[in-house]
Write a structure and sequence with these properties.
Elements (H helix, E strand, L loop, with lengths): L1 H9 L6 H20 L3 H7 L18 H10 L1 H7 L14 H26 L6 H17 L9 H9 L6 H15 L10 H21 L7 H20 L4 H23 L3 E4 L9 H9 L4 E10 L1 H18 L3 E12 L1 H16 L3 E5 L4 H9 L12 E2 L2 H16 L14 H6 L19 H10 L4 E5 L4 E3 L7 E15 H7 L24 E6 L4 E2 L1 H6 L6 E15 H10 L1 H29 L4
Parallel strand pairs: 2-3, 3-4, 4-5
Antiparallel strand pairs: 1-2, 6-11, 7-11, 8-9, 8-10, 8-11
Protein name: Sulfate transporter
Organism: Polarella glacialis
Keywords: Membrane, Transmembrane, Transmembrane helix
């Protein structure tokens, strides 16, 4: 019978194949035994049929005999006695706590596995995981209140139905009506089914489930996971062979093995540090960009993520130290914004890393210490030192990178502080600094210099720009103003602000301007907490992206302390220049091209690097 069931299950694809086999096998058995002359009692004696239950004295009289047999079989009086709270030995209840917890875990874990198994068979159909668990919980609650046992799905039947493509609700209705009818009938149906039939059905369930989870699942798992699966199965079978109940213990052994495997594998392969772009969001004047580009290896930016613990932290610190040595970094920025957690060993490893870096002449900067646990552990291990100048802590990685860039510029551009200069620079100088290196002309020192054509074009552009002088707090433009002009800062600085609600509805406006952080932020009131603010200085181009996109400025721009001088060219004058002096327009396009290219290098480049794009 087992062979016939297995053949029908694995080879016959029609949905009526298995029901037909299950129906015909008992009929064929009784037909064969009758033809061979065996009676039912002889079959029971031979073990081909289950033994008959002990006879019970059931009074039967009149037409109500069947009802009496049903109610006697249900034994309602005994059922009521079981639910009587006075019959409970309450002093034994605390001793059952471990068993109750174990049973709860078993049913919960088993139910989750049942749902996962059913979901695997449903293919693309989404199963409501929470809804299924709620249904199991409610059913167990009702069963317990009625004196029944705990349980879960008959998931084997659900899987078999799914494999056969049976999706009609009538399947469940028929099962419910049939099982409830068998519950009411005062007969044990199993005593009329051949033992080989019952055993074959159980073998079918077991073989099909083991085939799915012990054989067919091989390609769905890694080698280690597959070994743990077999280890859990073998240990569970061994425990159940010597104990009356070893499923919980077997699952516990498997869980412990999985935990050890995860810890070892995570420590060996997980890298909780990532080297990110060491360029801030500041878009500076061309001279400053050139200096920072030549010193790009001076800053090492590291983003720590995931969970840092003893095994992963050792690999992390060694990688950071070797990278800092390799590129000769002067500043090392450690960002903790993506770090979900840390243990004491990892915190001490970071302390040793910071000490080693500082002993090597490097300055360490910390940022994004949003987690109170991470901050507390780092402070306890003397990584975070409140008020320390040599090891500052910033709110974001971008702020720490701005600080590093400012230090580099202080050293390498001490005589040319464009970003904070109050001395007005000629417009021709500001324009020509963007086109250095475009042509093949060189100066007396052998360095690239603007060509004579570029110089002539720059001088031709000057009359078409308007010179604007702004006092402290005067607005150059507001958010909703149309972007119908380009601006170049000649002296002083501008403040650019953008409320958070505007960014949410219109997107970030960083790409609309050339940012230059002067490091002098005004005091903010609590009402300004959600407002994004930057400062720009001499040489910066403002509004170029918004100008060519033909939409609103998206920012408020006003003069910073000390006032500001700005050159402006309107859209109308630029259109007139296209007809009257195309070479001057070409020069301005070169200027804008280099400015926008720097935006791409600073913003699109890191995004491509993070996405592993080439």
């Amino acid at each position: 019978m087992t062979a016939a069931m297995l053949f029908a299950h694995f080879r016959v694809k029609h949905f009526l194949g298995m029901p037909a086999v299950l129906l015909l096998l008992p009929l064929l058995f009784f037909a064969a035994t009758a033809a061979l002359g065996y009676s039912v009692e002889e079959c029971r004696v031979a073990g081909w049929l289950p033994a008959a239950p002990a006879a019970r004295s059931i009074p039967v009289s009149g037409e109500s005999g069947l009802a009496q047999r049903i109610f006697v079989d249900l034994d309602l009086e005994r059922f009521v006695q079981i639910l009587d709270p006075r019959a409970v030995h309450w002093h034994f209840l605390p001793r059952q706590f471990i068993s109750v917890v174990g049973l709860t875990i078993l049913v919960t874990f088993g139910s989750s596995l049942d749902i996962a198994a059913i979901q695997a068979e449903l293919g693309g159909q989404k199963l409501d995981y929470n809804g299924e668990l709620e249904a199991i919980g409610i059913a167990n609650l009702v069963s317990g209140l009625a004196g029944g046992a705990t349980g879960s799905y008959i998931f084997s039947q659900t899987i078999f139905s799914a494999k056969r493509g049976v999706q009609s609700r009538w399947n469940g209705i028929v099962v419910f009506v049939g099982e409830f009818s068998l519950f009411l009938v005062p007969l044990d149906v199993l005593q009329f089914l051949p033992t080989s039939y019952i055993g074959g059905t159980m073998c079918l369930f077991g073989i099909d489930i083991m085939k799915d989870w012990l054989v067919s699942s091989r390609h769905l798992m890694s080698r280690l996971e597959y070994l743990i699966l077999w280890f859990t199965f073998v240990i569970t079978m061994c425990l159940t062979s010597v104990e009356t109940f070893g499923v919980i213990e077997g699952i516990a052994f498997g869980s412990v093995a999985s935990s050890f495997a995860f810890a070892i594998n995570y420590a060996q392969t997980s890298d909780v540090r990532e080297f990110v772009s060491a360029t801030s969001s500041v878009v500076r004047p061309w001279k400053e960009r050139q200096v920072l580009s030549s010193l790009q290896n001076s800053i090492l930016a590291v983003s720590l993520h995931s969970f840092a613990f003893f095994g992963a932290s050792m690999h992390m610190t060694k990688g950071i130290e070797s990278q800092a040595e390799e590129q000769g970094a002067r500043f090392v920025c450690l960002d903790f914004g993506r770090l979900s957690g840390i243990d004491a060993t990892a915190a001490d490893q970071i302390r040793m890393l910071v000490v080693q870096l500082e002993q090597g002449g490097r300055q360490v900067l910390l940022s994004s210490l949003r987690s109170s646990t991470v901050r507390r552990l780092l402070a306890a291990h003397s990584v975070v030192i409140p008020g320390s100048i040599s090891r500052p802590v910033f709110q974001s990685l971008d702020q720490s990178l701005k600080w590093c860039e400012a230090k580099l510029l202080e050293r390498w551009l001490p005589s040319n502080p464009l970003s904070i200069s109050n001395i007005e620079r000629p417009l021709t100088e500001l324009l020509l600094q963007y086109v250095e290196g475009f042509g093949h002309s060189t100066g007396a020192d052998g360095r690239p210099s603007p060509s004579s054509n570029d110089v002539a074009a720059a001088r031709a552009l000057v009359p078409h720009f308007d010179r604007l002088e702004l006092n402290v707090g005067d607005y150059l433009f507001r958010q909703q103003d149309p972007a119908d002009a380009l601006f170049i800062v000649a002296a002083g600085g501008l403040r650019l602000t953008c409320p958070a609600n505007y960014e949410k509805s219109h997107g970030t406006s960083r790409a609309q301007v050339a940012w230059v952080d002067t490091g002098h932020s005004r005091e903010r009131s609590p009402s300004d907490a959600s407002e994004h603010e930057e400062a720009i200085g001499v040489g910066a181009i403002v509004g170029d992206t918004a100008f060519f996109a033909c939409h609103s400025c998206g920012l408020d721009a006003f003069a910073a302390s000390g006032g500001c001088t700005v050159f402006r060219i309107s859209r109308r004058r630029l259109e007139e220049l296209e007809l009257s002096n195309p070479s001057a327009v070409v020069l301005l396009q070169k200027v804008i091209l280099r400015d926008l290219t720097q935006l791409q290098v600073q913003h699109l480049g890191p995004i491509q690097a993070c996405s592993r794009l080439k």
